[in-house]
Each structure stands twice: as C-alpha cells, then as structure tokens.
Amino acid sequence: MNVVIVDDGFLIALTYGSTSDWVRNIFAAGGGTLVYRQDRIEVVNPRIVEEEGSHSAFPAVVRAGLKVLDVRKYLELDRRAT
Predict the structure, then answer these.
(1) Structural contact between residues 51 and 72, judged by C-beta atoms closer than 8 angstroms
(2) Fewer C-beta within 10 Å: the chain N or C terminus?
(3) 39 CA to centre of own chain
(4) Cα 48 to chain center, whole Å?
C-alpha cells in the first residue's frame, strides 16, 4: 500500500480502486487504525480525492508506478485528535 503523510493525515493511492472491500470498510466504520512505520494511528473522516496533483505527494519512483497503473483516486484520512 502506498501511503504518505499530508497535512494532518494520510493519503493512500487506491491502486485496487475505490470500491475494494477494505476501502468500503473504512467508509462504513468512519475510519480505522493505520499502521504506519510501526506506529498504530487512529484515522477518521475518509474521503476519496481525484485531484490531479494528489500523486505529487508521493516519491518520484512511486509516482511513476501510479502513472503506469493509471491510478486517479486516492483515499485521504485525518489523524484522530487525541
């Protein structure tokens, strides 16, 4: 899974599409737990973004792969306030 930190949350490239089971589960639950670099982080407010510049948040090598796969949708999640 390709995940990057953005603002107060995370951006996940939806390489398997926005209707995969795990994405639907995140929406049904209103969030979940993301394990990022061995940290467990509670995330909320899931939303699909299709902004042209979203891929620019990823490292160049990942962007190249996302372009080849024609990924256009991303899942954005906010970090739950503690």
Answers:
(1) no
(2) C
(3) 16
(4) 8
